Amino acid sequence: MSGIVWSEGKAIPLQGKGPVVQLVRTLACHARGRGFESRPDRSEMNLTPEAAAKRISELIAEISEHDYRYYVLAQPTLSDSEYDRLVQELRSLEERFPELRRADSPTQRVGGTVTKEFPVVAHRRPMLSLDNAYTIEELRDFEKRLTRLLPDASLSYIAQLKIDGVAVSLHYKDGIFIQGLTRGDGLQGDDITPNLRTVRDIPLRLRGKAPSYLEVRGEVYMLRSEFNRINKEREELGETPFMNPRNATAGSLKLQDSSQVAQRRLKFLAYFADGEGLPDYDHEIMALLAQWGFHVVETGGPFSMNEVEGFIERWAKSKATLPYDIDGVVIKVNNRALQARFGATAKAPRWAIAFKYQPEQAITELQKITYQVGRTGYITPVAELKPVKLAGTIVKRASLYNYDEIERLNLHLPDVVVVEKSGEIIPKVIRTLPERRPSTAQPADPPQTCPECGTPLIRPEGEVGRYCPNYKHCPPQVIGRLEHFVSRKAMNIQSLGEKILRKLYEKGLVKRFSDLYALKPEILTNIEGFAEKMPHKIVQNIQASKSVPYPRVLYALGIRHVGETVAQKLAEAFPTIGSLYEASEEAIAKVYTIGSVIARSVYTYLHDKENWEEIQRLRSIGLQFSALSAARPSAGLPLSGKRLLVSGTFEGVSRDSLIAYIQAHGGIYASSISKNLDYLVVGENAGPSKLEKARRLGIKVLSLPELEGLVGKPVRE
Ligand code: IVH
Q1: Is 249 in the pocket of ligand 1 (CB under 6 A)?
Q2: 448: nearest Cα among 461, 457, 437
Q3: Atom of ligand 1 nearest to the CA of 348
Q4: Distance separating alpha carbons of residues 446 and 677, to the nearest angstrom
Q5: I want to staple 216 with a disulfide (CB 3.0 to 4.6 A). Which of 115, 140, 170, 629 is the partner?
Q6: Ligand 1 proximity of 130 Cβ (cutoff 6 Å)
Q7: For 210-228, what is the HEC assignment?
Q8: Burial class (CB in 10 A: 0-12, 13-18, 19+), 379
């Protein structure tokens, strides 16, 4: 049973429903998952495969029903804990009977498949794009064209919101989701099925009676709230933020690890279906799609062109209230037989058109550009504008994302710019108006040194952003790190906000995390006019944080690229800070889904003398730097503290999953043979020199079955 502990940490969060419930659910499931690991339910011990298959079938039906009620109807009928219990039962049955794992099992939603390269697959019929109309006039022209082409046809339309996301094509065989493709070049697309399985409102099995074959097309998209959450997280991790929800969606769908896709909480809206025995009208097909369990894009009709205009006007007014971005309305001839008669050009169907809303824009002066320095040293340029009214609010600032944007826009100072608000909450600078720019204006050369501390900036290879490398002494970076350290998901030290941290820092009282633990109530009273009990409360909160578990402490350190999930993974693979310190960069990179960029960041951080000394200080103060003590008492895991190395190949087991298996059971994956190695695990074509060296050093050589015997569980892909 490989990778169970593994998938668990990441698996569960996704059943969450809203951030708070989600956290609770994560913790609850996590605990329960481990419980199952060590104490399988007795009543299940003697289950026959037949009985298991029957129960799996029941569970899939029941969980899918609840998923549908929750994600599609938004009417949950089960409590979180009841739901979790069902999922856990299913997962544990699937682990015991992997051959009974089904494609439509809701456990697939959490991902776990890693795809090196997506296979390219031809579309059954091309995925065309749409012609655009920008005015009502152009819509009328569209109708005239149609009438000219087929004068006898009586035309009626449906109007649908045009979702600003990424088009995909989903294939269902006998009601089961079997394949999902991107649009690609329109003729062939990438097979991203594992990634699409994680999208909660894509049904894995259609409800009710389904045709033997069905293709559904629609848009994968991201809620604005989710987009903001992800960007905030990316900024915290020192990663470049996404430009807009559509980019974020496209980027997410291309991720190779589907469990990471699952964390992006993508959504889906269906707008088209093709299959046998479908009704003659699109509006009926939309109703059917909803019955089969899809979220269907907002659709109006059957309409006359006049009514279409009404729909367009209504949504122009209320589109800002939608939780996601749209960029227009798609108008389609409702009748399928007529659609076929109108046909398509090479680029677009003749029977449909996209009416594009003009994003709201305003022209204003760019007065200056300021540069904000984040916790990781990432520099965000911000356009400071002459206040201007845009989409109902006064805009004074606009994001410029990164340095390259300044160059791309050829910004001058001062300048005249067009700002736009196309759904996203933060307005952006679209372009300059060079003809209106004052003749004395100079190109806006971004500074080469940090605006806060003067250190020359660096640009990591392959990144568009600039960083201030003065990690240790650049004030906003230090204060930002302290803020991160005390934040809720990290050490959760309440009432210690940015303002106090800044004062403590400026007064030289707190520079490092460990300084916090030496704070006395009197010091706090002196620097801030606190209410009577507050300083005591804060000091108490600080002291209480000593019991925060290891993965969160690891996250609190603020290592670049180490978010909550990565910290969790690292703590699972290296259950003590010592074992993480000892691990080579290569060994860290081998942890399932971690990769070389994160590994380098972790390794460099830990092997910095000052950082390591600070960790020692924190450890001696009493912070948790081991996952072993609390969660896994005395016995530990079967490979705890053991160093292993793998050589050769193993039938049906990839090297990565073998390493993940070793780490999941407490082993440390070594980077080379040395006398510190405990076991060399050998497969076919194992390196003769490695074997020889292992013998010479007296290292025990294990076959895969021997390793499995030691762990007490088989490895499975
Ligand atoms: S219909 C043959 N309907 O817009 C019909 N497309 O510019 C082709 N889109 O690639 C598409 N919402 O990704 C249709 N309600 C909707 C849509 C929609 C968004 C996207 C779709 C397509 C692009 C065409």
Answers
A1: no
A2: 457
A3: 2
A4: 51
A5: 170
A6: yes
A7: CCCEEEEEEEEECCHHHHH
A8: buried
Span 206-263, pLDDT tens digits: 999 999 999 999 999 999 999 999 988 887 777 778 888 999 999 999 998 888 899 9
pTM exceeding the 0.70 threshold for the entire prediction: no
Cα distances from 711 to residues 159, 638, 649, 667, in angstroms, run: 60, 5, 19, 10
- What CA–CA distance (Å, rounded) separates 251 from 76? 31
Q: Which of 558, 593, 403 is nearest to 481 (CA)?
A: 558
Report the separation in Å between the CA atom of 287 and the middle of ligand 1, taken as the mean of its atom positions: 18
For 685, the token pair is 């074509």
Residue 665 has pLDDT above 60, yes or no: yes
Ligand 1 neighbourhood includes 270 CB (under 6 angstroms): no
509 CA distance to ligand 1 middle (Å): 58
- The tokens 């889904």 sit on which residue? 593
CA of 333 to the centre of ligand 1 (A): 14
Q: Which atom of ligand 1 is nearest to the CA of 299?
A: 15
- pLDDT (tens digit per residue) in 273-283: 999 899 999 99
Any ligand 1 atom below 6 A from CB of 335: no
Mutate to test the pocket of ligand 1, among 124, 130, 164, 312 (most ligand atoms within 8 A of CB): 130
Ligand 1 binding pocket includes 349 (Cβ within 6 Å): yes
User: Do 127 and 217 touch, CB atoms closer than 8 A?
Assistant: yes
| Residue 84 near ligand 1, beta carbon < 6 Å | no
Task: Give the Å distance between the CA of 17 and the centre of ligand 1.
Answer: 29
Over the stretch 9-68, which tens digit does the pLDDT of each residue have? 222 222 333 333 333 333 333 333 333 333 344 345 678 999 999 999 999 999 999 988
